[in-house]
Amino acid sequence: MTQRVIRLLCDAQNYPWGKVGTDSIISQMGPEASGKDWKFSETTPYAELWMTTHPNLPSRLYESPSTTLSSHLDAHPELLGIVPQKFPKPVEGKNEKHVPFLFKILTCKQALPLQIHPDKKLAAELHARDPSKFVDANHKPEIACALTPFLGFAGFAPFDRIATNISTIPELRDFLQPLPSYQLFLDDRLNSSKLKALVKDILLLNPKSSGILESAKDVLKTLTGTQDPPMERGGGDAQGVIRSLIDRVEQHGPEAVFAGTMWNDDQKQRISAALRKTQEFYAGDPGIIVACFFMNLIELQPGEAMYVQEDGLHAWLDGQIIELMANSDDVLNAAFIEGGEKDDINIFIDTMTCDPRPAETYKLERHNWALSRGAGATVYQVPAEEFSLFHIVGTDASTTVAPLNGPAIAIVTAVSSSGSQITDKTCGTMINVKKGQVYFVGAGTEIEYGPGVEVWAAFYDDQNRGQTGNMK
Q1: What CA–CA distances, in Å, run from 146 to 291, 304, 403, 459?
Q2: Alpha carbon 267 to chain centroid distance?
Q3: Which of 110, 156, 109 is nearest to 291 (CA)?
Q4: What are the residue boundaries of the Phosphomannose isomerase type I catalytic domain, all occurrences included (predicted)?
Q5: What pLDDT shows up at residue 446?
Q6: If we measure between CA atoms, which residue out of 436, 325, 326 comes closest to residue 12?
Q7: How far is CA 3 from each of CA 7, 21, 416, 426, rounded to the nearest angstrom?
Q8: CA 335 to CA 288: how far, in whole Å?
Q9: How many CB atoms lie within 10 A of CB 197?
Q10: pLDDT given for residue 54 in this prediction
Q11: Is the C or the N end of the chain the one with fewer CB within 10 Å?
């Protein structure tokens, strides 16, 4: 009988924005997730741990390190259940069988690039044009679920909040007024096309400070009615504007500086922290203005999640998350990245979804999962067919997950001090597990996660909330 629960070897991506050394939760998972290949340094940024068949960093079999999971699935397609029928070629130009999702642990100490993930139509066009950069032709909706307190920018804030920000904060008003798109948006502030035109103009602005700033006397007198020294407000570029805002916040507090906005006091504090953090790593990048004053800054506590659709504008800022998406590594970047690595701004703006709405609408509900019994699992389900996410909290009782119609990949994030096991109840085999180990679970497998085992798992979700494990 084919083995149905298979331990994997998974590797980390060391992008510079990742948390460094032991600050990254990936450092706790790496020794078991990567096995003998794991190399640790206190100065290395451990940004993403990949658990996937995607060719950019494919997982391999623990018992056969030279064998990729995708090639093993090619030899045993029954482990994928109905997935090959649904997604016969999720990675263009690759003949192996694939899971339909890309599963990660992601950590960041600074903002990721301001980005979107192209939809299927654009992804196919980009792949055909430049397959070395855009290695697949798939879309990439995604879940971010917090392992620690997490901050991330996602989507545009409601129109009225944006308009208030750029018309009542003096630095922004004075800086943006020369742009024709500024007044056009304010005159028609419910028009998504006008908003996109303004965002495009901002992203094309000069990021570097000339050192020549317009002087504006008595800014704080205007805002607060008090006499204060003249303040420099920035005038020629994003650098001056951002520095002036940060200086004023440090001197007078965010409540005074952002008094005319629609933010509450907690939101003003978070935006102030975001301004400082983005300026620290991306000094003068005009994307700071777009992210902080046009987008939703969403805070997640551990266990909370949000969902970003394909073409959705986002930039994770700080924290550690489970990240799960369709099986794609395509991305278009517009800010918080070196100039030569930015993508075509016209394609970016044309493709970008612009549906301003409150931050709360991005948050993803979690529910008790009907396909689990015993202690039970929590499930995060999304509109995308390729994936959903479940979480089992280690308790003194076990949790059994019913056979599913497609595959799952699970990472063990905690175990009992006295030892923990998972059991393949379909094949009748028991496996001793350790923190950081990653397992592929084949379609049609009933699996029991023993007492003390905490697991996060990605699974193919055929949108039939009562999956039976019947592969026919």
Answers
A1: 20, 6, 27, 18
A2: 21
A3: 156
A4: 6-158
A5: 97
A6: 436
A7: 10, 35, 25, 10
A8: 8
A9: 18
A10: 93
A11: C
Gap between the Cα atoms of 292 and 278, Å rounded:
9
**In the prediction, which pLDDT does 387 show?**
94
Number of H helices, E strands in the chain: 14, 29
Amino acid (one-letter) located at 267: Q
Strand-pairing partners, residue 321, are 106, 146
Token pair of 174 as six digits: 């004075």
d(CA 401, CA 374): 9
Question: Residues annotated as binding site?
Answer: 115, 117, 142, 314
Q: Is 232 helix (H, G, I), strand (E, B) or coil?
A: strand
The enclosing H or E element of 441 equals strand 438-441
Angle at CA of residue 62, ends 59 and 68, nearest 5°: 35
Residue 180 CA to residue 67 CA, distance in Å, equals: 57
Token pair listed for 258:
């952002």
199-216 pLDDT tens trace: 999 999 866 543 323 333
Contact 142, 325 (CB under 8 A): yes
Q: Which residues are annotated as a binding site for Zn(2+)?
A: 115, 117, 142, 314
Burial (CB < 10 A; 0-12, 13-18, 19+), residue 178, is: exposed
Q: Which 8-state DSSP code applies to residue 438? A: E
Give the whole-angstrom CA distance, residue 291 versus residue 114. Answer: 8
Query: What is d(CA 97, CA 71) in angstroms, rounded to the nearest whole number?
Result: 7
Residues with pLDDT less than 50, the chain: 209-224, 226-235, 469-472
Q: Is 394 left (phi over 0), alpha (psi -120 to 50) or beta?
A: beta
Alpha carbon distance 135, 231 (integer Å): 50
- Pick the closest to residue 206 from 286, 278, 282, 292 (CA basis): 286
Residue holding tokens 């263009």? 92
User: Rounded to an integer, what distance in angstroms lies between the CA atom of residue 250 and that of residue 276?
Assistant: 10
Burial class, 329, CB count within 10 angstroms (exposed 0-12 / middle 13-18 / buried 19+): buried
Integer Cα distance of 121 and 390 in angstroms: 29
One-character DSSP codes across 314-343: EEEEEEEEEEEEES----EEEESS-GGGPP
Residues in the chain, overall count: 472
As a whole number of angstroms, the distance between CA 328 and CA 317 comes to 21
Look up tokens 């070395």; give the residue.
132
- DSSP strands (E only) in 327-398: 332-335, 363-364, 367-368, 372-374, 378-380, 388-392
Look-up of token digits 């084949």 = 442
